[in-house]
């Protein structure tokens, strides 16, 4: 089984229609997040697909997208009632 890595996906999109499309695209992969920053667990193939699809969606002159891989050795800190992320055996995307 391919190991997933934890990323933060963040975007700044100027057009409301592209913003809605970017939100829908990232939420298809997201396990959590707020507004325009989301936690995503990705395999290398999913990472490639997300970057490819986002590049087709965004206007490179006006919009920005950041996909930041988080160090798996780092300690997770949560506030409130959050739970530490884990890499489950099964991951449903649908």
UniProtKB/TrEMBL annotation:
Q: What is this protein called?
A: CRISPR-associated endoribonuclease Cas2
Q: What is the scientific name of the source organism?
A: Ectothiorhodospira mobilis
- What GO biological process terms are annotated to this protein in UniProt? defense response to virus; maintenance of CRISPR repeat elements
What family does the Swiss-Prot or TrEMBL record give for this protein? Answer: Belongs to the CRISPR-associated endoribonuclease Cas2 protein family.
E.C. designation(s): 3.1.-.-
Q: Which UniProt keywords apply?
A: Antiviral defense, Endonuclease, Hydrolase, Magnesium, Metal-binding, Nuclease
Q: CDD domains, alphabetically? A: Cas2_I_II_III (cd09725)
Q: Does the keyword Nuclease apply?
A: yes
Q: Which HAMAP family match?
A: Cas2
Q: Please list the cofactors this protein needs.
A: Mg(2+)
According to the record's subunit comment, the protein's assembly and interactions are: Homodimer, forms a heterotetramer with a Cas1 homodimer.
Taken from the record, one Pfam family name reads CRISPR_Cas2
């Amino acid at each position: 089984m391919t190991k997933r890595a934890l990323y933060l996906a963040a975007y700044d999109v100027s057009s409301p229609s592209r913003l809605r499309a970017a939100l829908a695209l990232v939420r298809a992969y997201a396990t959590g997040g707020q507004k325009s920053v989301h936690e995503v667990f990705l395999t290398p193939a999913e990472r490639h697909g997300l970057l490819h699809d986002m590049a087709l969606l965004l206007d490179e002159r006006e919009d920005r997208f950041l996909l930041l891989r988080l160090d798996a050795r780092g300690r997770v800190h949560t506030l409130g009632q959050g739970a530490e992320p884990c890499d489950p055996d099964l991951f449903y995307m649908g």
